Amino acid sequence: MTKQLDIVNFLRGFSITTIVIMHLLQGFDLSDLMMKATSFGGAGAHVFILCSGFGLYLSYLHKPSGYKEFLKRRFGRIYWPMAIICILTAFWMTFQGKDVMMPLLGNLLLFKMFVPELENSMGCQMWFVSTIIQFYMAWPLIIRLVRIRGGYCKALIISLLWSSLIGIMGYADERVWNSFFLQYLWEFCLGMKLAEVYVNRGADLSIPKYKYLLLACIVGMAATGVMGWMGFPWKLYNDIPSLFGYCSFALIIYKLGINWLNSFWCYTNRLSYEWYLVHILVFQIVMFLLKSMIPTIILIIICLTMSYFVAMGYARLWNKKK
Q1: Are 282 and 307 in contact (CB under 8 A)?
Q2: Which string of DSSP letters, residue by residue, matches 220-255?
Q3: 89-108 in b/e burial notation, b at 16+ Cβ within 10 A?
Q4: pLDDT < 50 stretches in the chain
Q5: What integer pLDDT is reported at residue 40 of this predicted model?
Q6: Digit-coded pLDDT (tens) for 63-115
Q7: How far apart are CA 313 and CA 274, in angstroms?
Q8: Tell me, what DSSP letter sits at residue 208?
Q9: Is the distance from CB of 46 to CB of 239 less than 8 angstroms?
Q10: Is cis: bond before 233, omega within 30 of 0?
């Protein structure tokens, strides 16, 4: 069973890495084809949400806690690290001559998740914090949902209905709408289902054979691309093939059994949230200082290395405090 939790740790570490690389590469002048190719890394957000559902429900199944205690524990883990990065980002924005008052208040007081102009005001990555907090707020209702008969199927239906609704209303491209927690409810609940299976029948979480993973990867990636190319309304629903295509690709890499690589991504899981928080700010500062002075490939390496080590220090700071 420990090995199966290693798989979850690997997926989290792998997914945050591809997300960070995507955000970095999209800061450069890329062709349309390359831009679309790098966006595949963003599918790691789906796996991250799935793993969040798995981890939260696994903890709940082992040791149920009241809603107040749950919020206190989770907000302490999510909110304060985010708040400090927002304050540091505000200093950086002030140095650049940008307005910081409303972006900072919007992030610290959390109302930015309802204001399109503020949702990405302190970094394009901050939408995830809004989404995961929404999951925390709805946690008791989500538990009730998954425990009723057909609850997991109902979660999928709710997500599809939400996608359809924002498409009909014309808000499909608005982050506060297309990243509302109902959009990802199905994959969060899928993670909860896997946690339930893990607790009751741990052996059933074995990784599929290569041929099935490869098929799911090809079909998922192809369907994601085709649905995106076809546009509305098909693009509204490409989260589903995106998750399965990306997750299958990640599991293929894990299944290759390259020990040092798997160990690296399992370790990266430990600082995944901190890396997610700090990487945009680090990229902006490094590029401001060095972009016109060194070759692009060296700049990319420095950005990745610096952001990783800053995240490592930030994670250790919070773990020590904890």
Answers
A1: yes
A2: HHHHHHHHHHH-TTGGGGTHHHHHHHHHHHHHHHHH
A3: bbeebeeeeeebeebbebbb
A4: 1
A5: 81
A6: 888 999 999 999 888 999 999 999 999 999 999 999 999 999 999 999 999 99
A7: 9
A8: P
A9: yes
A10: yes
